Amino acid sequence: MPVLMMRDALNQALREEMKRDESVFLLGEDIGLYDGSFKVTRGLMKEFGEKRVLDTPIAEEIIVGTAIGAAMAGLRPVAEMMTVNFIMVAMDQVVNAAAHIRYMFGGGTNVPLVIRTPGGGGHQLGAQHSHSHENWFAHVPGLKVVARGTPADAKGMLKSAIRDNNPVMFIENEGTYAVKGEVPEGEHLLPLDKNEVKRAGDDITICAHSRMLVVAQEAAAELEKEGISAEIVDMRALRPLDMAPVIESVKKTSRLITVEEGWRSYGVGAEIASRVYEEAFDYLDAPVARIGAAEVPAPYNKALEKIAFPGKADVIVTARALLGKN
Amino acid sequence: MKVEQRPTESRAKDSLSDKATLLDLYREMLLIRRFEEKTAEMYQAAKIGGFCHLNIGEEATIVGSISALRKQDYVYSTYREHGHALAKGIEPNAVMAELFGKETGTSHGRGGSMHLFSQEHRFYGGYAIVGQALPIACGTGYAIKYKGTDEVVMSIFGDGATNIGGFHEALNVAKLWHLPMVFVCVNNLYGMGTAVNRASAVTEIWKKACAYDMTGERVDGMDVLAVRRATDQLVAQARQRHEPSLLECVTYRYRGHSMSDPDTYRGKDEIKEWQGRDSILSLGEHIKRQKLANDDELQKVDEAVTSEVEAAVRFAEESPEPKSSELYRDVYAEGAA
User: Fold this and answer.
1) Residues of B in contact with A86 (CB under 8 A)
2) Which residue of chain A comes nearest to B164, CA vs CA?
3) What's the pTM?
4) Interval A200-214: pLDDT, tens
5) Were both Cys, which of A48, A186, B111, B124 would link to B107 (CB 3.0–4.6 Å)?
6) CB pairs under 8 A between A and B
7) What architecture (CATH level 2) is domain B19-314?
8) Mean pLDDT of chain B
9) Fold designation for A3-182
10) Cβ A165 vs Cβ A102: under 8 Å
11) Where along chain A do its domains lie?
12) Whether B144 contacts B110, CB under 8 Å
């Protein structure tokens, strides 16, 4: 199986879907002539032309609005938001419009669009370019939210997202575009509502998504050396949230750590913990431990930034503590 | 208030002089008037909930603009859209049933007064966030261009929306991407309770088109024929040359912003003055002067639309409520491409 970087797996998914379906088009800031800020759309304008790869003004509201109106009229737009921080400018279109249109119009129309957008810190980009906000979108009925962690999942889920008849928030991560992995060629489709165990283990369950999946895998490898066997559940499907593999895992391990790159308060881990308490309380031997970013606007200074975002060491220390092995 | 018309080139003699056309316009305006009067009554009787924004006074603007469209053209509107929906051809039954929150309404009781919709009539919705629909309308304009078909998108909004970012983003790309669109500003002089001159640095809204090198035009929104003539030309340039435009229709709502507005920010004399220029009465006088119809015939039109509205109320009353077991229906669409 070919090994691809994340950005190339995404690029392959876009190219394949554009070839498959004439109604698929891309729009966003500098996605065409410039080839995309993170080169996910590299070469696509050359291949498909300016109509199907639409460079837009730096005006987020019109990007999302255009995608919605085109989707209602039968197209399948894939909008790129340069970073998830910029989407705040277009939140009205995402939440009040895209998410609610089908319901408030009594099912009279669909809004089949994808918004691809990277979040994540670690690049000294400060408070307005570094955050992760997938939980904001996962709060909203009407949206689907996915956050893939491997190149293969990126391809399979993006293809499914484009074919889905609903607005899908496809959350990427700046720190993972160069992550490499085996990617199936051709028709590789993954469901948008299935989480899966990415690493089997017996002692403790770690839930993680996107870049934190990579961090969790690194931590699990170290824990293995200490005799701690960690099971990792990839939470790539955030809304609808597939809890089945988490519940099953917790019934086996009785201990759970959630890891997310965003702030913990009202976050992904809070939702997972709450569901575990509701569905598997009796199986737990310890309270659920949540790991997330320090609750500060992302700092610029390299050393401060490093301690502001969760890393491998946080997962290891938390796992030891939960197992009483300090 | 006297409305200064922006001078425009003289137009060839149009078709707005024959009896059938004029009576159609008259009928449509009167239908909206009677529908909205009944809506106010039903709201006061607590048959209609939520917020309720009436079109009374704005009929010439609504009918003059929307009647210039073809059935397959698209309309995007606001939360003050009962009349827009009727003018686009949605049956009064379905509109009234939606106001009543019934399953037979345009949005199956999930939307209400502010969220009417019809795929069949290409009435692409009432939106309750000021200025929100303009960017969305541009997307439909882009889809038309993408598919190479010849529809037009009419995006209708109030004066208040022209101070919002989305308005400017929309006009910019409509011109930049050559979208087949007509932006219609219903300037009723107040954004909720704030007068245009207290909210906008530029009080002649049509001038805002200049910033985007776009055709801008101002018409007397109380004169249905003036609105229709202007819209005919702007729709044609959108359809034939993908040349978008901004049409400002200066009009007035006789009632408050919503049914719960005590209307303390404007004088009674001002309201009376505008009522004195009522567009429906004016068109009726015009029709009689042209000897195309007499009082009896106009009275018959009134009786016909009044009974249509009464039938709509009966339909709404008798329609079923949505089932509680279907609360979650249509949050998500099924299937995939």
Assistant:
1) none
2) A61
3) 0.96
4) 999 999 999 999 999
5) B111
6) 150
7) 3-Layer(aba) Sandwich (3.40)
8) 95
9) Rossmann fold (3.40.50)
10) no
11) 3-182, 196-322
12) no
